Amino acid sequence: MTKEECYRLGNITKPFGYKGQMVMYLDVDSPEEYVDLDSAFVEVKGHLVPYFFKVDNINGNKATVTFEELTADEAHALAGHDVYLPLEMLPKLTGNQFYFHEVTGFKVVDAQHGEIGKIASIIEYPAQPLFQIMQDGTEILIPVIDQVIKKVDREEKTIFIEAPNGLIDLYLGS
What we know:
The chain is mainly beta. Helix content is 6%, strand content 48%. It contains two helices and twelve strands. The chain has helices spanning 72-76, 167-172; strands spanning 6-16, 21-26, 39-44, 47-59, 62-67, 82-86, 107-110, 114-124, 129-135, 138-143, 149-153, 158-161. A six-stranded antiparallel barrel has the order 1-2-5-4-3-6. It is elongated. The mean pLDDT is 92.
């Protein structure tokens, strides 16, 4: 399993108690969906290694887990390591909701300008993420917010937007 076939679930932060339990930070919107999780991949020296565990408790975005077949010292050594799950384990999204990785390469069609290019990536800034759209070598940055995104067509791999007035013109000089 490679990182490209997975998504980052979170990371192992620190020991909990003295019996080898660890705290796992779940970097997800709905941590409670992972209460029955019994295994994941942990990145160790650049490789994804499968580990089995029991989720003892979830409080907010923090889960207390007990790793199977690991001593307390071995479990403690996992602190600071990222945790991954296969992409097929992501809950399916519908409508205008999407995962950032799934829309890379989608066409973007603006209500005023028509097709403006394809999504090269999504840049995650603290204030808000941005679509990085490339059109004939020109980069166009569009905020990834509900007010802008009008429709996501997964079959046609197209996102329909209504960019703020004048924003696209700044990039294209129209």
